[in-house]
Amino acid sequence: MHSPNPLIPPIFVSDENTCCFEWNTAMEKLSGWNKEEIIGKMLVGEIFGIFCQLKGPDAMTKFMIMLHKAIGGQEIDKFPFSFSDRNGKFVQALLTANKRVNVDGQIIGAFCFLQIASPELQKTLMQRQQEKTSNFRMKELAYICREIKNPLNGIRFTNSLLEATELTENQKQFLETSAACERQMSKIIRDIDLDNIEDG
Predict the structure, then answer these.
(1) What does the alpha-carbon distance between residue 142 and residue 181 come to, in Å, rounded to a whole number?
(2) How do residues 31-77 score in pLDDT, each as one tens digit?
(3) C-alpha pair distances (Å), 115 with each of 8, 85, 96, 161
(4) What span, in angstroms and rounded, lies between the C-alpha atoms of 127 and 30?
(5) Chain Cα centroid distance, residue 87
(6) Is 44 helix (H, G, I), strand (E, B) or coil?
(7) pLDDT by residue (tens digit) across 12-27?
(8) For residues 30 and 53, is the Cβ–Cβ distance under 8 A?
(9) Between the CA of residue 58 and those of 113, 171, 189, what are the distances in Å?
């Protein structure tokens, strides 16, 4: 496992309890953490969590699920895996994980291989992440617009009921102000063009 051959990818190995069993030279070079500092520590939450901060929402949970699937015998191929190295440098990779078996064929952990993303692949992955974020924001904005319409309709209805009653001059001014605010908010919602909103 400790061949200095540059063709050997970064590899780490898990036992059946997700503790690190192996951390090869390429992984040492990539992460900045030596094998002696890593072996025996939990991969989820300790190595990838404290030593190497994972990037992205729910990254820890997704990594834990992926690792347990591999230990359970399911092959994992090109799982997006991003973390910070010892110096805080962002590392973007694709992780492939396979079950690890003993001579009797019993699963005793998982082999994990990292494929470092080329600059082109990194750019594509970043664009996908930005698109996901943008789509989420668009859906959130559409939801907010939809939810604001109901209270505005309530204000409009209440204003129409009040207009049919006898009001003092002060009350008429309050009603006019309320109606003007309702019209302005309705116009803002109508003017939001969800198709042309640009991020940033």
Answers:
(1) 21
(2) 999 999 999 999 999 999 999 999 877 899 999 999 999 999 999 88
(3) 10, 15, 8, 67
(4) 24
(5) 22
(6) strand
(7) 999 999 999 999 999 9
(8) no
(9) 21, 52, 32
| Whole-number Cα distances in Å, 104 to 18, 58, 101, 107, 108 | 20, 36, 8, 9, 10
Q: Token pair for residue 158?
A: 């209440």
- Where do runs of H (alpha helix) occur along the chain? 25-31, 35-38, 59-71, 119-163, 169-191
C-alpha to C-alpha distance for 196 and 81, rounded to whole angstroms = 32
Please count the CA atoms within 13 angstroms of the CA of 115 that sit on its side-chain side.
13
The better pLDDT of the pair 122, 145 is held by 145
Contact 66, 43 (CB under 8 A): no
pLDDT confidence of 122, banded at 50, 70, 90?
low
Cα 81 to Cα 181: distance, rounded to the nearest angstrom: 48
Residue with tokens 């302005």: 184
- Coil, helix or strand at residue 14: strand
Amino acid letter at 29?
K
Residue type, 25: T
Helices 169-191 and 119-163: crossing angle, nearest 10°? 150
**Total-model pTM:** 0.57
CA distances for 12 relative to 5, 19, 75, angstroms: 16, 10, 15
Nearest to 66 by CA among 51, 52, 78, 53: 78
